[in-house]
Structure formats: C-alpha cells, structure tokens
Amino acid sequence: MIANKQKIANLIFMITFVFGQEYPPPTDLITIPTAGTLARGSFSLGMRIQDEGGMILGLSAGITDRFQFGISYGSPNLIGDDNLRWYPHPEASLKYLLIDENRNMPGIALGVNTQGFGNYNDSLMRYDMKAYGVYLAASKNWKSPFGNMGLHSGINYNFIEIVDGDEDPNLFFGIDIELNPEFSLLIEYNSALNENDKTAQTMSIANGGYLNAAIRWSIVESLHLELNLNNLLFDEEKVDYFKREIKITYIEYF
Known about the structure:
With 254 residues, the protein is mainly β. The protein has two helices and 14 strands; from the N terminus they run H-E-E-E-E-E-E-E-E-E-E-E-H-E-E-E. 9% of the residues lie in helices and 46% in strands. The longest helix has 18 residues, at 2-19.
C-alpha cells in the first residue's frame, strides 16, 4: 500500500515538472534588455527577421538561475536577390542578476551584448543601430487588471563600436503590458546618445532616439511571436519609413 502511494506521488511530481513548469520572464523587450534572466536548465532560440531580408539567429541558455550566456549571428540581406553579405563575426551576450526583485525594489542585472541591428558599416565598424555593449538594467513588475505590467530602464556603454568617435554612455526605457494571457504590448525608447556626434550623424537613422513598439503573441507558454515597429522617430533625410520586423522566440528546458 505504501509502495503504491509512493508510485502515485512520483507520478504526480513528474506530471507537475513536465506540464507545470514555469517559464522564465522576458529577458528583453524589442531590443532593450530587462533584468530578467533565463532559469537554470532552460534555453531560448530566437529568430529576428529584419527589413531588406535580414535575419539574426540567437541562442541563449540559463547556466544558473542568475546567469545566462548567448551567441548570435546573421546577415543584413539573407533573403533577396543581391549579393549575400554576412555580419563580420558572431556576437555574444552575458547577463547576471545582481539583485532579486521584491515588493519595494526592482530587479537589477549587469550584462554585455555586442549584437547590433540592421546593416553593418565596415568603414565605421558599427551596425545601423549600435549594440548595447555593457549595460545595467532594472525591472519592476506589478499586477494590472489585465495581467502583468513591467517597467524597465537602464544605462549602457558600447565599448566596441566607437570608430565613429561617439563614446557617450546611453539610456534606455521600456514598458510591457499584458492585454490578456496571450497578447502583450511592448514599448521602448533607446535615447541613442552614442549616435549624435557629427561623425555619427551620417550613419544614424534615428531622429531623437529610437522609439519602438510591438505586439507579442504568446501562442503557447514556450513560443512567442512578435510584430515589431521600430525607429518610429526616423530621420526623414536618411530613411522614408519606420522598420517592420518579426521576431520569433522559443523557450524550452533541457
């Protein structure tokens, strides 16, 4: 009798582990990082489909509940009929959760991300939209009438893409609001303070920073589809329209 009860308990535990697993919080919004990290033993596979047929593939893994590591690589024109160009090398990302979020304090994470977005300029050795480099991100979440609402902010310094002569630190902000259990609204602002020097103005496609918005559809707990509307404050002298992108993220456990 006791042996049968133990078998039933083990079965319930296995069902709870497999089907009741809590998936980690968002580790980023559209482009900006949050303080969230992947749980230990989980991995995230992401695909960002950019304008002009570009694509970035990324893989991240939760090494511990506080530390995650990732790599990414792609092309600014993977889909199209012109000469195929690849980014010069793979990029890396690291994040460590320094302080846990609680009722009174936001979660705070320290990280590094060298992946930029858009085309890569070989002479200036930078992406259209610079990578965040080393950053400090803070996130605070509340329950709203619809679901979770998160506020995110941070400061970053890009120590790699500095050939354009602009080495200023940068600020970013964002919010995500659950509209229902499946859909979330994302809004973020990257002030682009490291893209406003004279030598960078010929490269920057922003006009007063990057304002991005997105709708995220959580098809199931582990699969997220996003429609991103990026660079809503575009410089009309450089581009004629804002960027439309699709991002697909799959999260699973080892």
